[in-house]
Amino acid sequence: MEGKEKKMPDLFPKETTRRGFLRGTAVAAGSAVAMVTVGGLAAKTAHAQAASPAPKKELMKYLFAERENCTGCRGCEYACSVYHTGIVRPSVSRIHVMKYKDSIDVPIICWHCNDAPCVAACPTTPKSIIADPNHNGIILNEKTCLGRKCLKCQEACPAQFVWANPDTGQPLMCDMCGGDPACVKACKDQSGDPQGPCLVANKLGFGVNLAFRGVTPDQAGKDLLDLTFYPNVDGKRPTPAKTKKTRRS
Amino acid sequence: MTTPKGGCFGKVLEIDLSKHTYKAREVPDEIYQKAIGGNGLGAYFMTTEYKAHKDPLAEDAFIYVGPGPLNGTFCVSTRTSFANMSPYTGLISHAEAGAHFGNEIKWAGWDGIYIKGKSKKPVWLSIVDDKVEFRDATKIWGKDTEETHEAIMKEMKDPYARTAVIGQAGENQVPFACVIVERFRAAARSGTGMVMGNKKLKGIAVRGTQAVPVVDNMKFMDMANYAKKVAIDRECWQGVKRWGTAGLLELKNFVDGSLVTKNYQTTWYPDIVKIGAEVANRKFWKRHVACNHCPIHCLKLGVIRDGKYRGLIAEGPEYESGGLLGSNLGMTDFNAMIALIEACDAYGIDNISTGGVLGFTTELVERGILKPADLDGLKPKWGDGDTYLELIRKMAYKEGNAGKLLSKGVKKMAAEIGKGSELYAVHVKGKELAAHDPRGDKARAYSYALGSCGGDHHEGASTRALVIFAMINSLCTCSFASALIWGGENAKITVGMLNPLCGWNMTEDDYWTTGKRILTMERVFNVREGISRKDDTLPIRMRTEKLPAGPKKGNIFTEEDTKKMQDEFYSFLGWDAKGIPTDATLKAYGLEYAIDDIAAARKEYNL
Known about the structure:
The complex is a heterodimer of chains A (249) and B (607).
Chain A: H1 14-28, H2 32-51, E1 62-65, H3 75-85, E2 96-100, E3 104-108, H4 117-121, E4 129-131, E5 138-140, H5 152-156, E6 163-164, E7 171-172, H6 182-190, E8 199-202, H7 208-212, H8 217-229, H9 240-248
Antiparallel strand pairs in A: 1-8, 2-3, 4-5, 6-7
Helix pairs in contact in A: 1-2, 3-6
Chain B: E1 11-16, E2 21-26, H1 29-35, H2 38-49, E3 63-66, E4 80-85, E5 92-97, H3 101-107, E6 113-116, E7 123-128, E8 131-136, H4 145-156, E9 162-165, H5 168-171, E10 179-181, E11 185-187, H6 192-198, E12 201-207, H7 217-233, H8 238-243, H9 247-256, H10 272-275, H11 277-283, E13 285-289, E14 299-303, E15 313-315, H12 319-324, H13 334-347, H14 351-366, H15 385-397, H16 400-406, H17 410-417, E16 427-428, E17 431-432, H18 444-450, H19 463-475, H20 490-502, H21 508-528, H22 540-544, H23 559-573, H24 583-588, H25 595-605
């Protein structure tokens, strides 16, 4: 997919994209992989850098999902796939929004664990995935990754975040878009009164990311369902049987 | 014949339920340019493949489930269209539903699903990319839409699959049964549920991993981003974001004077404050849910917190469901109204027609035309939720006298009952009106009277809007987030996205021509079934009874209003005074194939 896309469209208002992106490319300059992935836009933005040096902006290192704010619009999936491949294709999006029991939307993100179990599980030498020291994004080396027959990283991820690319079989890793995640911006754009944004990027993880990562999507969905629909009705949740009966009565 | 370059794949999934086979049916780019997709493509198939007086439940009658070219791309909020010949009205019909179902069809690599044939055993369809399976639905036959959805999702073993299913009403051949998409969205008003039930097709589940090809991605993204930005920024739509369409309940009662009340008798219902958006917000709503890529998230989910329905998770009220199953039935108990809405969703029966039928029945009982003995001893009265719930159940199962009678719809009920009940039957072309009273909201009459489906609120509230809505329903965009919100820029934005997406050279004039062509195609179908100017009117009640109260007190829809509306519309589309497309018009729109059909219809109906 990357080979086909010579040009990358601007997804967001120009200044934001370029500023954020320059930071990303400057950091990733040493990494050939990142340059391949985002080559088109990097070349394009190089001019902008020469013309007007962007003010310094700190790189984000962690993602956080305020799960109860998710409306299930999948703007993040759209933004992620457009950022990485140029067109909308949720099956290669890193981030995903899962419907749980028809009524709850669960955003599934990479928590960017400090100990990165996915990287630890990678069997190749040198590692095919590395956590970037500057923005914590997981960078995939497509040349050395064993792809479909391995996917040890997928097994190792406690948050069940990692999907395999349906074309290549290689894992889809969150690279933090080089420190300025596209999903966070898309979420902020889409949200508003009365629902605030769900996705947040942070410089610090506060350790919360490590605590959250153990929650599987299904557990998160179940928690949210209870939290959203049955919080304090005299402390009891009606049994499903009762719910069914009332409908048919 | 050329293959589409972008936006569409050029292949529609053709399913034959009789033989349990499927194949890819090629559709050339020219057809997409002519009919766009969704409802337009459905209308094209129907006018070219059906002869006049087709039986909508024949074995080779089909349902076209169609997303449009913009589905699955960066375009904000796209939906799904279900087009078929309605067994309820006998006319061309289409229904649109939100959620992610249409996009998933596109991502599976199909431009649409064309379903014909009849299965001997109940089946459901599993479509994963180009893999199609006919799965046994014997075990879920007879279950409601929620249970069906859950059973199918369990068998799909993929939480990212999307479903469209029918409930008991579709199975039992209620003519206004609907398709429930992803549990809470309804593609209703077209009788698609009945056709699916007749074909023994319980549901469809789709999952796709492909992408929609784009010809000029840079240009397309520029326009799609602009369109999204407009959708986010437009001030006037923030209310829908906050309150959903339920916010209109209070607005239409206190300001516009067009909230239907007690079988469309009046538009003044002060009790709306007990069942409107404000109460919903205080007592019921818990979540805002969006369709794909939509910043408006108008669907509100809630849970009933007290009383006998405590713990019931449901969707609503929307303006139409809260109007028809709320004020139109004189409901004052919010929870009972939500139970009615949820019952309709669960049985897979159209909220609007159900509300119309129940209101009509209640008025007839009140006037003594119907006796409780005709209704299995039930005596519906305004605001009586329990009786209404029981009647809805009877309708869905066609149980007893009441079920059999009510599931016919008001037009046939009035014909069967007689005794002057026609005066109170509020329908256009056999379909009940939605919740906007055309006496208070005169523009809405365009949609009801002139729209192709009859009695439908979603077909545009002016001559130009009718054309725009023909495009909306064919592109499967959302009338809130991805069409009307663009205001005067609608044609510009749509063309600006379609050209780089599909590699077309459409101009803004072509946008209007295409919309008119789609409307004319639908009209050709309806003319063949005997529709002409005489049918493009409002119900007797709207034309003879003045509004007794409310902000629009004394309003009536006069004959002059009707005439003005019809003349304006017919001349805009190039139809003659009888509302029939002329030969010159058909040629101008490239619909030469319909000239003979129209000539035959003129002869048959003496037009």
